[in-house]
Amino acid sequence: MDYFFGFKSVISQPEAEPSPADTVLRLVERVTSSTLLEDKRDACRAIKALSKKYRLEVGAHGLDALIEVLIAQPDLETSSFVLETLCNVTSSEVFEEEGVGAPVGEQFTEIFLKKSENVISVITLLDEYDFHVRLPAIRLLMNLLNNKSKEMQEIVLACPMGVAKLIDILSDSRDFVRNEALLLLIQLTKSNANIQNIIAYERGFDQLFQVVHSEGYSDGGIVVDDSLQLMLNLLKRNASNQTVFREESCMKHITPFFQSCQQSEVDAGGSWSIQKISNVHSMLQVVRTLVSPANATQVVSPAQKNVAGCGLLSELCALLMSPGVPADILSEIICTVGESIRGCRSNQEFFGQVMASSSPPRTALVVLLMSMVNEKQPVPLRAAVLYCFECFLYKNDVGQGQIIQALLPTSAEAMQQISAGQLLCGGLFSTDCLSHWLSSVALSHALVSNTNNRELLLRVHLAIAKDVAPVSLLQQAFNILQMGGKLQTRLGILTLLSTWLADSPNSVAQFLKLPNAVAFLTALVASNEHDDQEVLVQSLCAFLLGLCVVYNNDANSNFSKESLCQLITKRIGVETFVDKLAEIAKHEVYSKALKHPQIRINTAADIQFDHEFCRLYKGLEGVIAKAVAPPTSPKGAESPSESELKAVAKYKDVIREQDGQIQHLRQRLAALEGDHIAAQSKIEELNVNVQHLQDQNTLLKAQRNNNVIIDEGETSTPPSESSTDKLVKELEALRLDNERLRGQLEQQQQAANHFVGIPPANGGGIAVEIASAPPASIMDSFTTHEDVQLCSFFRQPEPMSYFNPLEPELKAVQSRLEAMETELGDSQQRLAHCLTANAELKDEIERVKKDQEDLLVLLADQDGKVLKYKDRLKNLGQTVSEDEDDELDDGADEELQFQIENSV
Amino acid sequence: MSYAYLFKYIIIGDTGVGKSCLLLQFTDKRFQPVHDLTIGKQFCVEFGARMITIDGKQIKLQIWDTAGQEAFRSITRSYYRGAAGALLVYDITRRDTFNHLTTWLEDARQHSNSNMVIMLIGNKSDLESRREVKKEEGEAFAREHGLVFMETSAKTAANVEEAFINTAREIYEKIQEGVFDINNEANGIKLGPQHLPSNANTPSGGASASQGGACC
């Protein structure tokens, strides 16, 4: 509350507070520092109040603080104040206080857009239904979009559901909010296909038609127009959305729109309101966008069928014939109808049968053509009729035929009824040059890509006056051309003649028969006037003359192809001719006309070229230039003499022959080249194969070598065998070596043993022997250097020291021998002892043997007795068990064992 | 042609997995081997439509083919809300496209309405020799996240019909169960004209303008 007074004083006495910047600063500080929500809200309210007048200060000092509040979203009221403040700050309109050329709004927009979160928080606020939040939020987005369209579009696209939220507002029940959203969407969809697609996806068309419907169709206010503008944005150059439009069968919503504009027109009984004109115009634009020839054919033709299918075409035709429709709307309707039928046979047929409510009954086509040749009608309307007529005849040979047929003298009823063709021929006689142009161009469209009609038209004769014999149309057209007249007249006639003669040798022949025709054209092309318009006529004449050359069947000996070429070379000069011919293409109107089938005009003087003619010219210009400027005559202007011609003819033959040969050779060459290539590729293939095989081979080898180590049992190949052989051999050699070495070793050992094994007594002898021979004398006997080593061998072992080690050994052996001798004595004693013991034992054995024999006899006796007793027992009837038998056996065994032991 | 229902679908997934080819195969029954990126054209989103029959009822499918590139992710997000079904496509010959499924699914779940039917599609099943993702892996992923799964080939047309039609059937069943609010067109479902009351031809209220009249 305390603060609030301060704020009041600011407002009531601005003079007392000289610096608004200070005030703003104080308020901004309050916004940032105050913890009380109410305080914050009041500060925001105050800033908002100041933001209109001092927006530079508010923006400069407060933008960050405001954005902070915006993102925090403390409560709706505060958000509302912030949004409104930001609206003022970013507004693109320049206030009085500010100097001119200071784009304050744009600068602040730039700062605001630096963080896309800022925009996203504004979009989030759109969820609030509160009027005071939603509306300023929309307006703020609008300001941002106006200032930085591209950046905003990107940010909105990146924001999830961003576009969807905006579309949702279209169904806001408060019209005011909805309309604002509509304006925002129009701005948002400008040249951004992605946003356009999302809106179409989110049922944008449905919603817009709902708005159009609820606002009362054509009689609605500007909101209808806005909706249609948005629809146009969605559809223009967006094939995908056009498909969606068709798939969602939106076309049917357009029909009631046009129905409504007819009904209300009857009620009001007067002129249309400006808004209505605008609404209808926009809706016609929508339809034309869908069927525009600039679209791809696969999009256009279903759209055209759609237009007819939902009754829109008949509705438009009805509107066309109804009175009271403003002229500019009428022209637009005519164009719309034209584009709806262009190249679509069923629609063209439908249109051809539409009748106007006039007496006598006439077809709508005739009525339209009547207004075309009526010079009192506005120019755009007349041009629109021509366009519609063109569309009617486009790819419609039946329609073209009908137009021409009606002009032929054979059809009697044609006299009673005015036909389209008659109207056009009438137009040629009118005094109005625009009528000339329109009629001749219209007539030319009956001939486009229709050779049959070109020849039929030759038969058409016109009765100019009652007492004059009828002249052919061709003659008449040429007459008009000869008479000079205005530029448009001549351009129109030349267009007609060019279309007529192109691709039609008969027409060319007829034309060349006309007296003066060639001379006239040549004179015009050769003339040296440099007037801009005159140059255009000259260029067209050159084109016409060129057509006479290209489509010449040499029927007229005076003007055969060759002689015309000569004429051009002689009278005009090839270069001049080609230059003149190219003049059309250099003209601005030509490129304009080539772009779009519809004639776009503001004033009558603008009309110069027709689209179809430009296409014809584009296709044939090169052909003519080639035909007229033959590459074979380098001499140019000088005409060759007869002998030269003969020579040339001869050479020509030769050349022709050579040509044939060359052709033949070329073919052969081509064939051979083909063969060559095939062969090369084969070679290459084989090379690759070889390489491949080699690789495989080496690979296998490597594998095999590995295998040999692991598994010798596998297929052994020479190299591996040899290697093992080698090893075996080596081994053998080593073994031999070893053997040899062993032998050596043994020898040496023997030698050593020899030395060692010599009895000590003999060793002394040797030593004496060696010692007796004086070492010096031995040394002297060795003279050669090689024997030095041997000498050293003899010298080194001193005899005494050599045998010294043997002496202790000898002693040891002697002592051992003594020990063994004593042992032997011992053993001999033991042996004697043993021998005596042995004798004793032998005696004992003898004795035991005797005992044993005694026992055996006793045992035999016993056995006999036992058997006897057994028999007696058996006889007595007693059973004798086996055991007893066994016992007997055992007893025998024991006896036997005993015997054996003893024997051992 | 009149229909009982209209379902809106979107096709999502990494770039080059064959989304546009699937759409073309389903709507036009043809295969275009030349890979022209959806974004290479003027638009990020292509559109196709076809009529199918489920339970004897004519159902119109409107299919929106999105651009898979990362740069257009935010634009694709705008399409989730209005869709009744989504085909989430990966390429069985490219492991990374399978690995990215989680991101796609998160995106879809976050921005779509909760009832949106998502079908997982492993495309290019004709390229068995170059397969990097096993069918079982796809099945496991689908099971884990509650999706319907199918392997298709836009080239041979194998399972393509089934993929779109099964998704439609699932949506249709949800409608029968009353899960979907069919009066809210923001869900990607629209009632056909013959389902409306007979006086729809004479529009009186605001709503009928969007639905009334016979189809042409």
From TrEMBL, chain A:
It comes from the Eukaryota. The keyword Methyltransferase does not apply. GO terms for cellular component: cytosol; endoplasmic reticulum; ER to Golgi transport vesicle membrane; Golgi membrane; Golgi stack. It holds the Pfam family Uso1_p115_head. It is a peripheral membrane protein. One of its GO terms (biological process) is intracellular protein transport. InterPro entries: ARM-like, ARM-type_fold, P115_Arm_rpt, Uso1_p115_C, Vesicle_P115, Vesicle_Uso1_P115_head. General vesicular transport factor required for intercisternal transport in the Golgi stack; it is required for transcytotic fusion and/or subsequent binding of the vesicles to the target membrane. May well act as a vesicular anchor by interacting with the target membrane and holding the vesicular and target membranes in proximity. Belongs to the VDP/USO1/EDE1 family. This is General vesicular transport factor p115. It comes from Daphnia galeata.
From TrEMBL, chain B:
One of its GO terms (biological process) is vesicle-mediated transport. Residues 204-216 have a biased composition (Low complexity). Pfam families: Ras. SUPFAM superfamilies: P-loop containing nucleoside triphosphate hydrolases (SSF52540). Residues 193-216 are annotated as: Disordered. Keywords: ER-Golgi transport, Golgi apparatus, GTP-binding, Lipoprotein, Membrane, Nucleotide-binding, Prenylation, Protein transport, Transport. CDD domains: Rab2. It comes from the Eukaryota. Belongs to the small GTPase superfamily. Rab family. This is Ras-related protein Rab-2A. It comes from Daphnia galeata.
